[in-house]
Fold each of these.
Amino acid sequence: MPLTFDDLLLRARALAAGGRRAILGIAGGPGAGKTTLAERLVDALNGDGPPWAAHVPMDGFHLADAELDRLGRRDRKGAPDTFDAAGYAALLRRLREEAGEESGEVVYAPGFERVLEQPLAGAIPVPPAARLVVTEGNYLLLERGSWTRVRACLDEVWFCEVDEEERVRRLVARHERFGKDHATATAWVLGTDQRNADLIATTRDRADLVVPPDALPTFHAPA
């Protein structure tokens, strides 16, 4: 039978069934629907009682534009070496180690401001009671450099799959919504974004589960 969103909810619940904190990763190319799936999962899991799931995106570990300028990498922002991969892995380890009501510690994760296109420190609180953390990003399954530390911190990784034409359409619309004209948005999507998407596609077979488009909730905003 085809995989459904309800199936994904059951699988996510099962990850945290043992009482310890579990971390679910959602990977996929730019525009594949990672953020939308993560947000809908967390909303649904928290909808039947006290919140116990948290959403921590990888995007908060983008290097700031000033640092990308210093490194000469701003023209390919979004590539693997334009993130603080070691810092992301360290946060995931901390989320796993500092779990449970007895710790009494809120772990703060960085967020990402789409309008400014800049990371924001301490923007996402993860309370001790969070038994499931859903994290999503492009390079969760990448076996390169510090990214290799990420997979070991995750209980499962799901890979979002979407029609390539639809993925490109979403990305162009997202770039336009945040200030790029159509020509500039299209050039970025077919250049920098596409090179990243091709790399991410090579990691698909390392996922625990491939999520087909039909299993994704209604798509309202590019992810």
Amino acid sequence: MFLFNWIRSLLAYFGFKKDAKLLIIGLDNAGKSTLLTMMSTGRIVQHAPTPKGSCQEMDMGTIRFTAYDLGGHPQVRRVWRDYYPAVDGIIFMVDCADHMRFDEAKEELDRTIRDDTLPDAPIAVLFNKTDRKEAVGEEYLSDKLMLGVHRTGKKHTPRAELSGRPLETFPSSIVKQTGYGDAMRWLAYYIE
């Protein structure tokens, strides 16, 4: 293992990076496009609903991510699964201030977790918009989405010690620029 890590560090030093595909999905208005713009440009831009998918490339450590934001309208959600076989990781975004849509978010997240075309890709669930006064806490929303049995922890537990796919929740606020960095580092660990 030491030799493998040393070689990977050496390749990263010389500019070689592992390529990984990342899918950013969730209900409409959860903040997917804003997150993608923030991660690729460092700017906060409020977007209109995503009419068609977009793609950005970004580097994080030894990984070059190609991130796809496919939108979250009901018509677009049917396309998500077409991307599943080729992805290395998923960010599933939930608006933690939109109480009326928690059941809908749970349904879509469950469908994603159970999909048989999705490889053993790690899933980071971002509870976005924690900066809003009506936002609920991580544990409450995790219970509401029934993620307790799926969560594997924020620590970097080796895959061999996990009973299933890596999945964890991360409270975030793109506006305050918190939480999504932890999620990306967690994903990068399981993708490397």
Amino acid sequence: MASIFGFKSRDPARDRQTDTSRLDRLAKLLDQIAAEVEAEKSGLENRYRTTATNAAFLVEAMENGAVSSRRSSEVGELTKSILNCERRIAALSRQKQMMNELRHSLDAIFDENRQNGPNIRIDFAKPAGPGTG
């Protein structure tokens, strides 16, 4: 479009394509980060269960006299490890929730762009897997 002052502006469709491309890259990055958080959380939860089980068996064995009470330091270390796992799992849960909220906000922007743009079909990146959006 040309104006009387010689200023030319871009076609709005081109602006929408640029915005869509940018939002799509952001969506893919958010999905990647969410997957990383979920993978770390899942692995940590498995290690947490194993550590908690080991601690329970050790305490039971100590109570039954099957092992020396000198191994109580091991119980202390396992307890410390369990508490650290619980804190990290809680932090990862908060990060996952934040990624879900950001992704939901981004989807709302996609929908807004779709409604404001011409009738062009554009495929947006969507989260993969259950509970990611």
Amino acid sequence: MDPASFALQASIAVAVVGILTILTALALAACLKRDNDVDSLFWYGFSGLSAVIFAIIGAAATIPGSGGLVTAGALVCVGVAAGWLWRGEHERKIKLADEALRRERETLKGRHERVLQQWVSYELDPAAAIDFPAMTDLSRTDTSRLIRSMRTAALLRERFDAGDAGSAEYSTALTGLEDALAAAEVSAGVSRDGVGTTRSAHGARMLD
């Protein structure tokens, strides 16, 4: 076989191997995006690797002397595909972690806002202020504890936003705030119905 024919046929064989590797990498990337799809990941990887090996064997059998060249080309293609897959999966995991952190932050801040809105209604709602004056009476132990818990939670929120406090620490402060509010409400004679409405002994209501 003359050198020109050999080079052409070997190049075609390497191109076939490259195409098979690309298709396999794309299939594996799609599987990786579907978490826990281990079976598909295995079979796509096994099928793609088998196809590449058969292509190398076929090229070596039909193009004398091309086995080493095609194998080297296959190794390069597989290495590039593996690097591409690793980088894509790494970036995907970073995005998933960032999204999980964002949702966690929103959840914690949502808890904080609900407690603040619940407490401030005792100040802004005239009926609630009349029915539950103890909720704003700082001389009472439970109300004083509630205010201290609010300050602690506010401080932790600032530190959490600045990255100086973790979500667990902030969550603990919020749990303390929620418990303090519940204790203050019990002490003030607040009772709640099944839809989150507060009632006084005189029948007045306010919605959270």
